[in-house]
Amino acid sequence: MKRYINKLIETRRKEGYRSAIRKSYLVIKNSIARQLIFNNTENEKKWRSLKDKYKGKRVFVIGNGGSLNKTPLYLLKDEYKICFNRFNMMFERINWLPNFYMVDDELVLNDMVHEIENIIPSTEMSFFPDIHRSGKIFRGKIKEASNILWFYHTFGEFSSNLPFVGPGNTVVYSAVQVLFFLGFSEIILIGVDMNYQIHKTVKTIGTVEEIESTKDDDPNHFDPRYFGKGRKYHQPFNYIVQGMLDSMERIAAAAAVKQDVKVINAGYDSKVTNFVRIDFEELFTYGKKEKQELFNECVRKVSGYPDVDVLNQNSKVVVKLGEDLDLDVLPSFSTDVDVAIGVINKAIHSHIPLGPFNGKYYFVKRNGQ
Q: Does 146 lie in the same domain as 214?
């Protein structure tokens, strides 16, 4: 315990004494609770049963960056996947649900607790910290479920001693520690862009980086509503983004030591340079017909049409984004992918985007619109 407290004090030193005393008190006070929760519980047994369960398998770590709009996510149907935070906004556009789900941010958890409770049943496992590194307790805010596993923030670097997890500056850092423990041999990042812009239409709600959006114009994620009006999160100041990139560097260092696991970046437009890069579609061996059938699953789910060919026949072609794009009179339309990336922000409220497929995007009007 003495060693733990010394490490805690060292970690808090730069935060300012008043903040340090408050946070240190909370975490030390709850450390006893942490141990009681861990020892001899169903949560402990669940973790022990999962050690190396997925040895030799590969898993996709799906960030929520805007590059997901350039990624044919329907190809991931039969892959292992872990998603985060408000990825549930993508569910309507794809033909699968994630195997694993994680939230590791206090503001996000408090802001979407009811959404989280709806996501959990669709997953094999969902992971949350029992006590946040701020000292605040997560457990109890989310309804218990058999597929929830609680992990424990510790003070240190990348951890192999799960469920104790070294906290980083991005949820991906916590997730990769869990995936190492589960035994995955290949971890593939997509949507981990790190191409953040300062969100201007926000108001400060706490510390300088704690903000609430005032419009559905999130510039940093796959959907402008992701951190849209009324949503609370952290402003991506340069020092915060640098902290995220530092976490990527620590993941790379841990993978180099472990050696029996590869971390690959297959994302589009990613600033993360710590891992081997590979083209996303090179990871699959699907033939042309197989790819089309996977996309057809998305088409049938959203449009009611039997396949993309019929959808294509019934979709107006939009050449460019302009003032003449009257969404009210377009039950469905298509664009080239390059045009679609800009159209999504305008059309997402009235239409569901599907794609990319063969260089095109399709937009299907929402029911009741």
A: yes
